[in-house]
Write a structure and sequence with these properties.
The chain has one domain (3-81): Arc Repressor Mutant, subunit A (Orthogonal Bundle). Helix content is 54%, strand content 14%. The chain is built from 4 helices and 4 strands; from the N terminus they run αββααββα. The strands form 2 sheets. The chain has a two-stranded antiparallel sheet with strand order 1-2. The mean pLDDT is 89.
Length: 85
C-alpha cells in the first residue's frame, strides 16, 4: 500500500467516525486521544487475525490442542503415541 493510499484510508475513517484520529506532523502521524481509545481493540483484533492465518501451512488449517496431564502418563503413554495422532 502506498503512502497516499494509506493517507486516503485514514481520512476516510476519520470522516466516517467524525473525529480526528491522527495529528499530522512533519515526520508522519501521531495518534490523538481519540485515536488511542480504539487502539487496544484494533491491535487485539489484528493479532487474532494474524494468529489464525499463522495456523495455515501447506494450504491446510492446523488446530492446536493443549493438554494438561500428569507427567508419568505423558511419558509412559501419551508421548509415545503423539506421532500417530
Amino acid at each position: 500500500m502506498t503512502q497516499a493510499a494509506l493517507s486516503h484510508q485514514i481520512r476516510t475513517l476519520e470522516d466516517r467516525l467524525g473525529v480526528v484520529l491522527f495529528r499530522r506532523v512533519p515526520r508522519g502521524l501521531v495518534l490523538t486521544d481519540e485515536g488511542m481509545a480504539p487502539a487496544p481493540v484494533v491491535t487485539a483484533a489484528l493479532d487474532s487475525i494474524g494468529d489464525t492465518l499463522d495456523r495455515f501451512s501447506g494450504g491446510r488449517f492446523h488446530e492446536a490442542l493443549y493438554l494438561g496431564v500428569v507427567g508419568t502418563f505423558a511419558i509412559g503413554w501419551l508421548i509415545p503415541r503423539l506421532a500417530q495422532f
